[in-house]
Amino acid sequence: MSMSDIPTSPTSHLLAADVAFVALTTGPAPLCLDCDTLPDDTNAAPDRPSGLVALPVLRHWLLTHPRAYTIRDAVWRDVVLRARLHGKEWTIAAVGMAMPALVRLARHLCTGYRGDPADIDNEILTGFLEALRDHADLTRPAVYASLTRAAWRAGRQLRLADDQTVPVEDLDHATVGPRTPRTPYGHPDLLVRRAGTLGIIAHTDVEPWIDVRLGRRAPEPIAARLGITVDALRMRLTRADALLAEAITHGHLTWAATPDRRNTTTAKRRAGIRAAKATVSASVPQRPLAAAA
Fold this sequence. Notes:
By secondary structure, this protein is an all-alpha fold.
């Protein structure tokens, strides 16, 4: 898909994003990426990008060097992190960088589709943006692949839903069968808030835990908001995981978080800490006192 193929009035959000990408990356001050910060890649060609490179040029280089895995990962980690921390412009940049793949996915999924192709375009874009904002894990390799897989799954889900639709000519005479009720879901966020109220986990860890563990939000913006590193946030959440698991196992979150129960829970935790310290102290062999000369 070339830029000349894009209509002046885009027919889908995906095409609108491509128009916005062109606007951001052309003109006297195009959006660029500093490629001097990219790591060395033994599979990369000698013409690897360097200095400030306009994003369309960088996209073309990546497309023509499919084996430059290390550079591709570094570029996409940088782009995704910028999109998460700086918002709109770099979000559009990320979509534009992935546009050739997204258009290819849309073309494949629209083949034989009975509905409006713009619907599939929009679902593909939505899946990509959700992964870009929250779900893509920057600590794992193949960030770009995880983004495009999310886009594919979103578009394919709409396509499968269309394929499974059975047209009914006359609804008045349609046989109504039993409906299987959906599995009811609880409210784990309430348990976590109760744990914070009871002092089982730090109250400052409640919202980050809910955002990351339940909301599947990306940790980078949350860590930046808290003024800590991503690694420090992960350690805090892992510690909260263990404390929550222990509290649920022992039934500490079964009842309402009344002041009496909060005091009781706090006392039990402190008693457990004291007992653990006493056990450790008892297990350390005592050094004999030196005999007096």
